[in-house]
Amino acid sequence: MSRAIIHMFPCLTDNYGFLLHDPDSGLTASVDTPDAKEITAQCQDKGWTLTHVFNTHHHWDHTGGNLDLAAAYPGLEIIGPAHDAARIPGLTQGVRGGESFYFGPQKIEVIETPGHTTGHIIYYIPQASAAFVGDTLFKMGCGRLFEGSPQDMFDSLAKIAALPGETLLYCAHEYTLSNGRFALTVEPDNQDLITEITRAKALREQGKPTVPTQVKLEKAINPFMRAKTAQHLGDIRRAKDNF
Ligand code: ZN
Ligand code: FE
Q1: I need a surface site. Which of 76, 142, 229, 236 has the fewest CB within 10 A?
Q2: 50, 18 in Cβ contact below 8 A?
Q3: In this structure, which topology does domain 5-241 adopt according to CATH?
Q4: Which residues have beta carbons under 5 A from ligand 2 (an ion)?
């Protein structure tokens, strides 16, 4: 079995688009659909035909391209949270936490991560040591609690923390520099955090992404991952919202 190829590209203001391609089966998935035009252009550029969409949650910058892509690619399979079936345009298959499915030979595990929205899910691909985490976790940060509680997000981040340390985490937005400024107010003496902020600044100055990040790194630098209790996480989240 060949390793799945992950192709990442910026789109909209600060979103990332992701194409997941399995060389053995020829299948190609778009993780979320921030911008149908850009996703189509990237597929054409790669010579890949889009066969699947994996939605993480219902927000427009993650599902807005679903219907246009379904029209452009007949038979497109749109997989997303069953919990949010009514809010995911064009959904063809709802999945739940604890379930897994196959994308060609690649096993994909679905993990429920409520908090940012109640139905948010992430996709973990053990063979690729990668997880697509949507708006649950960002480098040095986490998603806003639009629908869930601090306890929801605390439990969701604990699930990500339980993945193997090497796992690459593909976050859906480039928020690292602003997250880093805030994280420093929580842990001004965290040397790993200071080092990573310096690295992130250099990458951004060269126009390069700071995504993906890694489970073991986030455990060392992400103030939300490092919160000891749900209440502490809630306090940090409220401070970030007003930062
Ligand atoms: Zn969102
Ligand atoms: Fe988003």
Answers
A1: 229
A2: no
A3: Metallo-beta-lactamase; Chain A (3.60.15)
A4: 61, 135
